[in-house]
Amino acid sequence: MQEPHAAPVNVFGGENDCEFHQKTVPNSTPVLSPAATKGSLVKHKSKEVFFGDEVLSSEDIEKAQLETGRVRGQLGSVSEQPGSEVTGSGGKSGGKKFDPMVRPHEDLKRQMSESLLHKRKSISHEQLKMKKGMAKMNLDFAKLTSKDMLPHEEFPYQNTGEFLRSVIDELIDYVGQTHDRSLPVLEFHHPAQLRGNLDLDVPETPEHLAQLLSDIKDTCRYAVKSGHPRFFNQLSSGMDVTSIAGEWLTAVINTNMFTYEVSPVFVIMERMVLKRMRELVGWADGAGDGICAPGGTISNLYALMLARHKYFPELKHKGLRAEKQLCMFVSKEGKHPLFLGLTMGTTVVGAIDQIKDLAPIAHKHDMWIHVDGKHPLFLGLTMGTTVVGAIDQIKDLAPIAHKNDMWIHVDAAWGGGVLMSNKWKHILDGIHMADSVTWNPHKLLGVTLQCSALLVKEDGLLESCNALHADYLFQQDKHYDVSYDTGDKAIQCGRHVDIFKFWLMWRAKGRVGMEAHVNLMFELRDYLVKLIHEKEGFKLVFEDPQFLNVCFWYIPECIRQLPEGRKEPRNFTRSVAPIIKGRMMNKGDLMVGYQPLFSIPNFFRMVISNQACRHEDILYVVEEIDRLGHDIML
Q: Residue 361's pLDDT band (boundaries 50, 70, 90)?
């Protein structure tokens, strides 16, 4: 017989506060229903209330309500130290650690947790087992489909809860396996093999939930574990648990960033985090503007559009034919700005070579600017190129750009994270001279993909450039401050919430935690360079790396044994890295990327940003590449 449950009640009496369900059982012991999360309050006819796993009387609640201060203020800022005090409205914290994500009833629950501990009565072991087992109904997922879960399922949502718990259990297992060095980075299969191993058809009729859980397990099995301590294949690697939690919450809330109306917390949060990032760039008081964009390429595109709008605002309405041809200068390795320039009708007339001596660059650029009568618009510099990790010297080039009224943009998608480190931020000296900066926290800092920000020195330019004032979304007569609507800053309408996972990670680590991570990565870089110098068969492509990219060749024994003065065939040199990479992928214990660069034949590029990486993993890279490649023959 189904147990009766009372109508939802509101413990706090506020009209808009959360409601919690009461559920009775035969022995009249109050038990939390699955609709109420751990720590929820449930009213009971005996005037006792459960708080988590414990019982509070009505007197306890009344005392807590009196003792609880309604801490209120603006959204707390990200901090230097994890768990530091946060300033509320009026700039005073009052000694309280204010959490902006906590609503009034959460304040009450926290206060009860701290001040009424001695009055609580522990729940019995049997009651705890009963509560935790309520959703454990031995469900047969092979007989259930999505139609048996929310929004179709009735309270207490047992099918929904059990399905999600099963998914979360699988994901927690995956997180653990990802950090296990005894397990592989990947289980490699060629495309045809993988297609045969997986059922990827999209059906006409719904699959049962058991099949979905099996699909999730298979997906985890064949996925590349980019958080594995020995994954060095991309600039973005590693796995931050708090960032993962932020991404999960973002998916559950499933809102859009275009208006404060539908995303109030995240809009304010984005403002505050981007302001702090601008402060780290070096702009006074964090002045300016910014926006989270879907990747560094789009952030760079924003910068080029802003430059054009800044100096030629009429082009927004008249089009490119209204003016003479524009031109820009970009880093030689800065492929994203270059391609964007071509697509926007902007000619690239010069490329900066970071690898060679920078001394003559200033004079050379001054000559380029006056070539062919084109109008110089944009100087696109890179601080941390994808392959080499090279850093353009903005101090040498900014005076020329300023002299010619050019917009200066710095692509620090990869390098920006170094600003968190007081020890290493000097390598980005002069970045404050830029008009805009691209910074991807999902790279060096390890935020879950994706998280990219465009930071702009001039406030209001983003909206001026991109606004179309769509009145079906951005009404100007709303009852709140419409300057918090971000949609008119963006080139797209819908915008994913990318800020929460970064904010949550920053709260967890503080700036000093991220500084420690950056410092460790440089320590590991230096250790790798030392090993390459000491280990026979390894040779650096570029001595003294500027950043966290270490580029090197592996030279097989057959080449090392060639007589003095005889050069190895160039085609053979080019093929060594691909052969080793193929063996590496088949074995699955390690992933390191390789590529050529201009006329330089294939070499390995070690990117060190994985927060799980330690000295033992760097040593493993060198020893494993030697094991995989020592027997390669001409």
A: very low
116 neighbors 64 (Cβ within 8 angstroms): yes
Neighbour-count burial for 144-177, b at 16+ CB within 10 Å, e otherwise: bbeebbeeeeeebbbbbbbbeebeeeeeeebeeb
| 314 close to 491: Cβ distance less than 8 angstroms | no
Tokens for 188, please give them: 């490699």
Q: Give the largest CA-CA distance in the chain.
A: 94
Q: What single string gives the DSSP state of each residue in 252-276?
A: HH---SS-TTT-HHHHHHHHHHHHH
Joined tokens for residue 271: 């403002």
Using one digit for the tens of pLDDT, what is the confidence trace for 251-291? 999 999 999 999 999 999 999 999 999 999 999 999 999 99
Is 382 buried (19+), middle (13-18) or exposed (0-12) by CB count in 10 A? buried
* Token pair of 249 as six digits: 């919450």
Burial 341-356 (b: 16+ CB within 10 A, else e): beeeebebbbebebbe
Q: How far apart are the first and last CA of the chain?
A: 79
Burial bucket for residue 182 (CB in 10 Å: 0-12, 13-18, 19+): exposed
Q: What global pTM score does this model have?
A: 0.77
Q: Name residue 241's beta-bridge partners.
A: none
Residue of 525, 558, 567 whose CA lies nearest to 542: 525
Alpha-carbon gap, residue 272 to 166, rounded angstroms:
36
DSSP secondary structure string, 606-632?
A: EE---TT--HHHHHHHHHHHHHHHTT-
Tokens of 361: 């660059």
Instruction: Specify the residue for token string 């914290």.
Output: 93
